Design the sequence.
């Protein structure tokens, strides 16, 4: 039987596949930092080469930001035409001193929970992306061709707000049409529990600078009468929240937020998510979000306003008695339900402006994007087929889960290409994505490839 | 008459004196940053050389930090033996991009308010220190010797908390004994108004880190249930203040703070301080400190708790959806009256610890010092003599002022050496000390030298 042969081929090729991933991980494709522009480009070239080696007609496609990689293989038949999406860019690595190894010199490490591939991007998203590419490589090696028409679509700006994504989708609508998008950028709800993400939170990014005195001041001269932008910023950040309820205190913030239906809540309660472990693994004794919601609901179904960076004044060695002229803040919101990112941005900005003291000002960064939350169309037959395939591979019933993260591309596939997405990923919660010492379990990589082979088989049988 | 000859000599030597100051300013003696250790040392060597050129028996004296420079000249007679103090270290220069020139490549610039010497340390304190050295050089050139016994004592750690000062004073008590300390590190209350600072605020420095999750987290995974140290820090900073009254809300903070006596307040009201100009020159429309006090009282007679640095999370280009493991804060307090820095440090720490949420922690930096406020002994006859000399030079009645800054050495001269201090300085409020584009007016430099010559004459007549 051809599926068995493909699975065997994946098993016997694991070491070589791991070597290929390592090579890919060595390219520091940090998309958010302009200093790494050439490396991002190099990662795209690497992918094009690798796809071509499997006989896929792949190209690097320029954008006004980092390039896209697009590949085509196969002809339309009565089997579905799938578009596979992943991203080849990675998060920044700071704080570098907390890494136990060079983030871009990956290695296999033995840990208490098994063997892992350690390095930036191992889990998010290079390792995940390669599970699909390797499944195709094995399929091709065994069968001489792939089982359906496949479009490969890899982005290099996912970690920096995907500024070129919508223009690219719009300009290449016809070329990127397919029956279903497969996206590998999500995690399993618990170790060993295969998961299909059926709802994602959206995202809103903003950044502002609080201004005060015209220049940095000496606190011996102006300490007392001087307005301090750092204190002003702290007060504004504090005003974002209602400490009693844990809710965001920006007017209109919860417009479009819906409660989770009872039956869905019940499914989540039995999906294998271990709240205690999820919290204690990072040092928390309890969930710190909105009162009255479980950690899972806070993560999957409730919106947030999170401060991702605060800075201003002196942060070097020793001390400096300065009242700085400016203080800076980066925020992101996770959106759910029908929250509208544009309305929310306006509400947050109005809130900040209403909080300002006399003599304080605010400047906004106007280059940051937003995306709505997404709910998958799990009534489609492909979802049941994939659930069966995953259950077979992992020997455990696959589950439909929510997700706290944001994968804006899913919303744009729908709005621009009219395309439903299916999100299947093999990351674990402890992969430390976006953190020092990111890793991807060798089990995730290996069974991930096998899972895709089974899904391709199930979708085309 | 010998004083006139000295003053003429100062006038004719102004260009050469300016060149010497420039040379001194070119040495980037930033004491708080270990990267500049060799430069701080080089500045001490420069001073030793320069003092020796005037016939002063000067030496660089090692400490466990940056060196002291000590010089002696003259024998005990019936004229007072003065100890002159200044500091040769300077503040860091960040944000460097706001400087209009290299901070360590000083130059004379023409401005609307006259000619200035632009560069880091021009005003604080290299330029001020050199007013006294140059006065001595001129005196020596004209008279062949100085008019009294003088000890020169220059510190290289004033901008970094003076860690070696007390041990050095204690170890060299006998050598540093004198009748009166002269300190040149203060400003004039208004342009052209010669000022003797009769009270100084004290200083307390502290630094803390708020800890939360064990590692940096991805806000897609933990945004909601996760405790964010940046939000925690913002709330703690906000809790330092009572927004209604503008007072510091730390329990016990105002213990030892006294109201300014009516007669002193009246003197301050007529001392030439222009509140409107003082505030508007840096972009303020009103004083932002405690309600019910003028800007001058807020600056000279009221205590503060100031945030000098906040940082944590991502501050690079673009955005990063991180919940950081840590958030950092540098604070300083300006102390008045009988406030006890040690008790206050305990009160602030207890306040922060009481504010912490479950799962949040705090780490303190235990290397930072404190000093009490100081009140000068203006009943001594030298103060009246200096006031007369200054009034003659500036053609304007000299005034006794308060000061918002902290000059801890004054307290240590008293407690360790039993020495009263007289603080005479020629800086202007717009000198931008501790800020980008620091400058010292050529008028301050020139008339400063002349003022010291007159004071030396008045003290020894």
Sequence:
């Amino acid at each position: 039987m051809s599926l068995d042969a493909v699975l065997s081929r994946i098993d016997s090729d694991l070491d070589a596949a791991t070597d290929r991933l390592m090579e890919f991980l060595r390219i520091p494709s940090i998309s958010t930092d302009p200093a790494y522009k050439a490396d991002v480009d190099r990662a795209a070239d690497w992918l094009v080469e690798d796809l071509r080696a499997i006989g896929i007609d792949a190209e690097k496609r320029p954008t006004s930001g980092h390039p896209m990689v697009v590949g085509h293989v196969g002809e339309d038949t009565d089997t579905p035409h799938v578009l596979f999406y992943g991203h080849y860019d990675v998060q920044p690595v700071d704080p570098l001193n907390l890494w136990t190894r060079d983030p871009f010199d990956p290695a296999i490490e033995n840990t208490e929970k098994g063997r892992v591939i350690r390095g930036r991007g191992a889990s998010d998203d290079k390792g995940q992306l390669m599970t699909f590419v390797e499944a195709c490589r094995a399929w091709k090696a065994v069968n001489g061709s792939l089982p359906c028409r496949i479009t490969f679509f890899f982005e290099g700006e996912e970690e920096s707000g995907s500024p070129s994504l919508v223009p690219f989708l719009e300009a290449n609508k016809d070329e990127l049409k397919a029956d279903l998008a497969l996206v590998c950028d999500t995690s399993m709800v618990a170790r060993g529990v295969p998961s299909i993400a059926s709802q994602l939170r959206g995202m809103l990014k903003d950044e502002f600078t609080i201004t005060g005195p015209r220049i940095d001041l000496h606190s011996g001269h102006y300490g007392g009468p001087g307005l301090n932008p750092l204190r002003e910023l702290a007060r504004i950040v504090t005003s974002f929240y209602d400490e009693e309820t844990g809710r965001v205190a920006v007017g209109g913030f919860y417009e479009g937020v819906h409660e989770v239906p009872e039956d869905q809540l019940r499914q989540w309660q039995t999906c294998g998510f271990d709240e205690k472990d999820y919290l204690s693994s990072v040092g928390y004794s309890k969930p710190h979000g909105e009162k009255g919601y479980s950690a899972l609901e806070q993560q999957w179904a409730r919106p947030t306003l999170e401060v991702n960076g605060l800075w201003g004044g002196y942060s070097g060695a020793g001390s400096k008695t300065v009242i700085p002229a400016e203080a800076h803040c980066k925020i992101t919101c996770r959106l759910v339900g029908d929250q509208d990112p544009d309305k929310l941005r306006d509400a947050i900005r109005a809130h900040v402006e209403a909080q300002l003291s006399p003599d304080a000002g605010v400047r906004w960064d106007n280059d940051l994007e937003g995306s709505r939350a997404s709910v998958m169309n799990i009534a489609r037959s492909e979802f049941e087929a994939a659930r069966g395939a995953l259950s077979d591979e992992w020997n455990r019933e696959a589950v439909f889960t929510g997700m706290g993260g944001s994968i804006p591309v899913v919303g744009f596939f729908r709005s621009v290409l009219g395309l439903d997405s299916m999100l299947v990923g093999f990351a674990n919660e402890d992969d430390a994505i976006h953190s020092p010492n990111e890793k991807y379990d060798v089990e995730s990589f290996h069974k991930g490839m096998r899972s895709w082979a089974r899904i391709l088989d199930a979708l085309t049988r």
Summary: Chain B touches chain A through 99 residues (CB under 8 Å). Chain B has a mean pLDDT of 95. Residues 2-200+374-460 of chain B form a domain with the Aminopeptidase fold (CATH 3.40.630.10).
